[in-house]
Structures are given as C-alpha cells and as structure tokens.
Amino acid sequence: MGSGKFWRRRLRSLTSAAFLLSAVVTSASAQPDAGGIATLEAFLNGVHTLTADFKQEIWNAEELQQTDTGSLSMKRPNRFRWTSHQPTELTIVADGERLWIYDVELAQVTVTPFDDTIGSSPAMLLSGGRDVREEFEVVQAYPADGLDWVELEPKGSSDFSSVSIGFSGTEPRRLELVDGLGQVTRIELDNLVVNPEIGDDVFELEVPAGVDVNGEG
C-alpha cells in the first residue's frame, strides 16, 4: 500500500500512525505499571515541542509493505506536522483546529475538522493537550533494545489495538502500533531535538497554486 493511501485511510478514520517493533500481546489481566505511567508522564510534562527525522516501516505479518522517510515537528497543544519525503511526498498538518493532508502526487489537499476523536489518536498522543490516561491505559512497561518501553491500549474505539513507545530517558525514540488486522507500523526517530523554539507558522499549510482543496479549508 502506498504511503498516501496508508495515511489517508488512517486519518480519515480519525487515527494516525506512529511506530512498532514487534507485536507484544498482553493478556487481559495485565495491570497498569506505575513505572510506565511515570515515564510517560515525565515526557508529557517535560516535552513541549519536538523535531525529528523519521523512518517508518509498515509490515503485514513478516512482509515489509512500505518504507517512508521524512521529518516531523510537534508543539503542544494539538499541533503536529509530518512530512514524508521518500518515496511519496505527503504532508500532514494539525493546526489545532483543522487537519490538513497534502498529497503532492495527486495535487490534492483534504481538510477535516480537528475534533476530540483525532485528539485521541496515537500521533496526537505525543502532541495533544489532554491527559493521556483519559484515552489510553498503560498495560505494560519493560526494557528492550536499550530503551524503556511503555505499552498502551486505547480505552475507546480505535483502528489500533496497541501502541508502544520506546523512551531513552524522557525522549521517545520509537513508536510501534498494531492495528485490528495485525498490521504493524514501526517508526524510528533520529536527530531528535527536544523543546526547540517552533513558530506557529510551521503548523500552517500553504496550498500551492493549482492544487485542489477538498473539505473545510
């Protein structure tokens, strides 16, 4: 599946991707981990802006379906910019009021209102302004690959069955998501900068001339 189709499918269903290592299935009896909550809350309380480069892989079973590279910026509350450079040019911008999806290949921008459902999606877990425990339950915390992992499950309706975040200190280095069909999204962050100055204009999308705009612009 192409990167553009992948993002449109998830964002139109009011979800978004992050990243995954390998699926870690926890039992229904798993209990929230106090250390995991502390790690997650240290990030949420201490990191207000963030920039990074990313590598995203999408897997079905053991087969790699898609690899994308690009950059992201986030700013609380509810501002997020994701730009895929290779192999497909795609920009997704959340400005706190609207969600903009610009597919360069299709020369098309889709605009949808930013609402509470988008605010509970995995990507907005990093940049949202709400208490993460309102939307996600911490079910497990564990060390692996030199990172401290926190696994969460959404409390409400979601396209994703689990979200795992690998931290180095309070810095997120990997995100791993498993959807309801078992598809895995793995994203690794590099060149990460915590709490840089980022102007609000970064989270505005300038629509190029000749590009169609669909939705509420």
Describe this structure in words.
The protein is an alpha+beta fold and 217 residues long. It is built from 5 helices and 12 strands. The longest helix has 13 residues, at 34-46.
Structural class: alpha+beta
N-to-C order of helices and strands: HHEEEEEEHHHEEEEEE
How many DSSP-defined strands?
A: 12
CATH architecture: Clam
Counting structural domains, the number is: 1
What kind of sheet is the major sheet?
12 strands, mixed
Helix content: 10-25%
Oligomeric organization of the protein chains: single chain
Counting H and I runs of at least 4 residues, what is the number of helices? Answer: 5
| Overall pLDDT level | 76
How much is the radius of gyration in Å?
A: 16 Å
**CATH level 1 class label:** Mainly Beta
Low-confidence stretches: 1-32
Name the shape in a single word: globular
Question: CATH superfamily assignment?
Answer: Lipoprotein localisation LolA/LolB/LppX
The strand order across the widest sheet is: 7-8-9-10-11-1-2-3-4-5-6-12
